[in-house]
Structure formats: C-alpha cells, structure tokens
Amino acid sequence: MTGQSDIAVPRRRGSMGRRLGAGYLFVAPNLAAVAVFMLFPLGFSLYMSFQKWDLFTPPEFVGLQNFRTLFTADPLFLIALRNTVVFTVGTVAPTVLISLVVAGVLNRQVKGIGIFRTIVFLPLAVSAVVMAVVWQFVFNTDNGLLNIMLGWVGIGPIPWLIEPHWAMFSLCVVSVWKSVPFATVVLLAAMQGIPGELYEAARIDGAGEVRRFFSITVPLLRGALMFVVVISIINAFQAFDLVYVLTGGNGGPETATYVLGIMLFQNAFGFLQFGYASALAWLMFAILLTLTAVQLLLARRSRLED
Amino acid sequence: MFDTPIGRRTLLRGAGVLGAAALVPGQQGCAADDDALTFFFAANPEEADARMLVVDAFRRRHPDIKVRTLLSGPNPMQQVSTFCAGGKCPDVMMAWEFSYAGLADRGVLLDLGGLLAHDPVFAAQLRADSIASLYDTFTYNDGQYAFPEQWSGNFLFYNTRLFAEAGVRPPPGRWEQPWSFGEFLDTAKALTKRDRSGRVSQWGFVDTWVGSYSAGLFGMNNGVPWSTPRMNPTHLNFGNPAFIEGVQFYADLATRHKVAPTASETQSMSTMDLFSAGRAAMALGGHWRYQTFDRAAGLDFDVTVLPTGPRATRARSNIGSTGLAIAAGSRRRQQAWEFVKFAAGPEGQAVIGRSGLFVPVLRSAIDSTGFAEAHRRIGHLAVLTGGPANSEGLPITPSWEKVNALMDRNFGPVLRGSRPAASLANGFSHEVDEVLRNP
C-alpha cells in the first residue's frame, strides 16, 4: 500500500502540474489581452498624467502641473464636473425608481408578460450611437415626435436640444431610457429570489400590494439595489458616446452638456493634450473609486445594523 | 478528453495553427505591403467622384507611381493625427488653412522649401502663376508646408427663378460691385414667403456653412479683418465694434428679421436641401456646394458676392483654401513630390478647372476656357474667377482648435438671439487672446 501511494503521489503531482500548465495556457490569451489592452493603457495613462505630450513630440515631464491646472486654472473643469454630477443624479435616481417599478410589474404572472418583457428589454440591445441618432429625430423641434405629441395637448414646441437648459434634461431622458433595462434585469432577478412564503404570510396578515412591495420587496433587494446604483453611477460618470452624438463634440449648446467624458475627449483628440487628458481620466477614476467605496461602506454598515 | 495529454496538445496545436492562419491574411491586409503612395483627403460624395479625375490624370501621367486614396471620415484632423501618431502618416495629405499650423508646429508636415530649391523651374513657374495671398496661406514660420490646391472661399448662390418671379433685381456679379447690408436685407425680405398659418414656405436666405464662421464673415465685410497679423496672431478682432456690428446683422437675419431659419428650424431639413428644393432664395456657401446644386433637379441658380456693411468699402470673401502637404516622415518623398507638383501645378490645376470640382488657385487655370466651360450655367463667372484675389485670410495659429471650441460656445447664444453680439467683447474676446498667447 505504502509503496503504491509513494508511487501514486508523484504521478498525481505530475498530473496536477500538467493540468495547471494547461490551465495557464488556456487563460494566457485572455491574460495577455488584459495586460495589453487594460493594464498597459492604465499604467501608461498614469505615466502620461505627469507629462506634457501631444502625440508627435517627445513627452516632457511636468510633475503635478496637469493636476494643478485642472484644479486652479481651467474654468471648464468645474463646469464639466457640475454637469457630470447633474447628469449622474438626473440619470441614476429616475433609473432606480423606474426600474424598481418596472421590475415589480414584470415579476407578476400575467398573460402576455413575455411580450411586455421583450419590449422593456429592447433598449438593452440597441447601440448607444443608434439610440442617440433616433432620439435626435424624436427631439426635433419642428417635426419631432415628442413635440408633435405635446402639440396634441396644446403645448408649444420645446427646443429640446437647442436651448441649454433643455439640452441636459433631454440627455438625462435618453440616458434613463438606455439604463432602465439593465437595472430592471438585475432587480427582477433579485425579486424572483425572494421566497413566496414571505408574501403569503404578509397577505394573511392583511398587508396590501403596495405595503408588501415597500416592506418586503424593497428591503430584500438592498444588495441588488446597491449594485444597480454603483453601476449606474459609474456608467453615468463616464458618459461620452450618447452626449457626443446627441449634442456634439463640444458638449453644447454652450456648455450645457459639457461633461467630463467630453472634456477628456476634446483635450485628447481635439487639442492633442494627452497628458492633461490622462490627468483628468485619473481624477475621474479617483472620484468614482471614492464614491464606490463610500457606498460599499454604507451598505456594509447598514447590513451590520440589521 | 482534456485529461489526456495528447488530446490537449493536439487541441492546442490545432488552435495555434488556426490562430496563425487567421493572422496571416490579416497582417497582409494591414501592412503597407504595396509600395503605393497614400493620399489622404476629405470630400463630400459628389466631390469624391470628381476628385478621382485628378488622381486618374496623375496615374496616366506617372504610370510608375501607384496611388492609394484614403477618404477621411467626419473629422479629418483627428483622423490624420491618429494615423500619424500610429506611424502610418499618409504620404500626401490635404491641409486646411485652419489646422495645418498645428501639424506643422509638431513637425508632422514637411517644409517643401527644400524640394522647391531643388526644382527651381517649377518653383519659378508656381510663384509666377500663384495668387500671393493663397500661396502665403501655407507659409508658416518661414517654411512652406503646403501648396494651395483650391479656393473654397464663401459667396452667395441665388435662385434665379425665384428672383425673377418676385420681380427682384439680380444681385451684383463682380466683387468690385458691392451691395450693402441694407440692399441684401431688402432682397431677403422680398423673397421670404409665408403661408396662411404664418409658417415660412420660402426663406430669403440660408447659410450652408458654419454659423459662427459665417457671422465672422459678415463682421469682416464690415471692414474689420479677423486678426492682424494673420499668422500667429496674439489678438483676434472679435471685440471690435465694427466686427460686432457685422455679426449682429448676421444674427438678426434669423432672430429679428425672420428672413433666415433659426437652428431649430433647420433641424428637420438642412439648409442645403432648402436651397436645392427651391425653398430658399439665397444660400451662403463655397464652391464645394456647386456639385450638389448643379445636380439638383429644376434648380436654376447663379452666384453673387457677399454683402458689404456700412464700414467697409469693398466686398471680400475668405481665402478658405485647402492645400496639399507631404508628411515629414514619408518614405516615398519623391513620388509624393511628383503628386503634389502635379495636383498643385499647372497640369493638375487645369484638370481641376475643367472638372468643375473646385475653383483652382493658379491664374492660368482660373482664367482658362476649361474652367469657364465647366461653369457654363453660371452668369456671374467673375464671382468665381475673382474670388481668390478678393479674399481675406482668416487667422492661422496652432491654437485654432481651442479658438474654434470657444467660438462654438460663445457665438451660440448670439446666433439664437439670447445675447447681443456686443457680449462677444467681454469675456470671450479675452479668453481667445489668452489661448493665443498661452497655447
């Protein structure tokens, strides 16, 4: 027996080693992709954030100059930050509320729910650029669908994308429309994991539908809600494609939709200030990291209190 | 199957072979496998077809030089920057008066002075045949970074049938015969028609260029250049009262006099389509619109000069020239030089003139019968042939992209009528000067 096991161990080890090697080989392409397309750009952009670089001439080390300029000498940074915060709040709050309601509705067992679900999830399958182009037609001042419908109830044409104060509102509308399906998928999956007995017991105790929703569904969805909020904030904070197509590469009209994503793109590819744009990218990363950490901390504290 | 070493190895080998097989044709497609000269240009669909005439003429003249054309996407500057930064700079590229200085400043463009010095016959011929202000457009920091290829300054197209039906006198046909802002406004008013509900069915004037730039042209036609000097200015005249007056006149056309559509009113139908469809009597634009209007069914049009404000003595267009440049890192410099010489020299310019594609920049081609033949439907040919010599340059600075972003932001409210043009003299004008001084 002993002899057998002595022989068996190195064999197993050899087999384990081969398995491990094969495993590494299989993940190697993915690891290489992560290294080349994620880790290297990340490291390179951090390096660039301390340089002055225009793509063509050799980079010049400027220390913290790019960050100093952002905080002290570029009035557009504060405008972009303010717009991004407005856009994030204007997107995340309605997205969470609407997706909660929609998931609640989709969670019911009613006839034809499949069709309804398909319609609700449709925006998830459409590219942001296509979506923005379609919404451009919808927001057309003279012949847009929205203004035509408003005209039926006696409301005059609204310059959705022309006037600065309407442009940000329009952007938030499209962003909410785009974000709701994903949030709904997550919340619906979480809702379906809630045991039916809880609802049954609440119903026997006389709780109505609304009461059951707010007293059972919402508290038990806390984890999923937190996930949706974090992901939505990250997405909204990095908004670019939607804004670029809908209101242009300058974040117009005036500075109404000049968000951080547009500022980053404009500095990098318009002004060829890649060092400055990299500094901005890392600042955005720092803000998002802080926000996410605070959210997770609050969530953990709330769980512990329970 | 994965537990057996042979199967796994076979699988990995197979994957390796498949991967390599997939990569080989891909690499061939991406690599600069052929020795063709690459030519990068931007053009609308109508222009792109006609532009190939010049390329084909060059191929016939130099059958030994292969040319591969690269048509630009919506933002040529971004595209060419990306190409060049990635080490794939096109050998010959179109250069725009606004943006070439940024590339020249960064060493992307070759100073053609050296090649000119080795080709004194061509240099002398080019100098003698050129219009100085156009040639000098691409002379930056003592270097010659491109040769002008076309004049694309702005003027007015007008619908002759709508003028005749309304009994309005045709506008002038030469740059030496100015018409005033007042006369222009009266004409636009007479040609703006409304239906019973008050909706405009025919506009007196539409702008097919960029609103903020066109407004600047009206400022310039009130006697104030955009900048003095033109090259590397440290101050733009956006705050000059006469310039502001011209900008305000332009903005008022849409917001006060209602003879031109506002930004909202052109969301559903482009200004170009409005003119092509006979729903606008006058359209501001350059010769790059000619092909489109020429092909529009049932459109009878002619051209006229831009109106002149009370403080100006003569009508001016903008130089608006594009040129041809050679990449500093080009490995096919001699072939590129032959291409640029051909397209910007008398031979290529004659082809351009005959094609009706552009307004050429050499006198021999502008005054040629070929150019006149290609524009037979134009009565006021002198507006085109006299355009290059009656143009004023817009500022040339490596910081133009930043100035452009500021203009877009600050002209918007003026053109919408929510702020007077006088507001440009405040923060905006100083911001522009700051950008020019500290790029």
Task: Explain briefly what this protein structure is.
The complex is a heterodimer of chains A (306) and B (439). Chain A has 13 helices and 2 strands.
What's the gyration radius of chain B in Å?
25 Å
Helix proportion range of chain B:
40-55%
Q: How helix-rich are the residues of chain A, as a percent range?
A: over 70%
CATH class designation of the largest domain in chain A: Mainly Alpha
- Main sheet characteristics of chain B: 5 strands, mixed
pLDDT under 50 segments of chain B (min length 5)? 1-6, 14-33
Kindly list the characteristics that best describe this protein.
heterodimer; A: 306 residues; mainly alpha; MetI-like fold; 2 domains; two-stranded antiparallel sheet; 13 helices; 76% helix; B: 439 residues; alpha/beta; D-Maltodextrin-Binding Protein, domain 2; five-stranded mixed beta sheet; globular; disordered N terminus
Write the layout of secondary structure elements.
The complex is a heterodimer of chains A (306) and B (439).
Chain A: H1 2-48, E1 51-52, E2 60-61, H2 65-73, H3 75-106, H4 113-121, H5 128-138, H6 145-152, H7 164-192, H8 196-204, H9 209-220, H10 222-237, H11 241-247, H12 260-270, H13 274-305
Antiparallel strand pairs in A: 1-2
Helix pairs in contact in A: 3-7, 3-10, 5-11, 7-10, 7-11, 10-13, 12-13
Chain B: H1 5-30, E1 37-41, H2 45-61, E2 67-71, H3 76-85, E3 92-96, H4 100-105, H5 113-117, H6 120-129, H7 132-135, E4 139-140, E5 143-144, E6 147-151, E7 154-159, H8 160-166, H9 181-190, E8 193-194, E9 200-207, H10 211-220, H11 241-255, H12 271-276, E10 280-286, H13 290-295, E11 301-304, E12 317-318, E13 321-326, H14 333-344, H15 346-355, H16 363-366, H17 369-374, H18 381-385, E14 391-392, H19 400-416, H20 427-437
Parallel strand pairs in B: 1-2, 1-3, 9-10, 12-14
Antiparallel strand pairs in B: 3-13, 4-5, 6-13, 7-10, 7-11, 8-9
Helix pairs in contact in B: 2-15, 10-11, 10-19, 14-15, 19-20
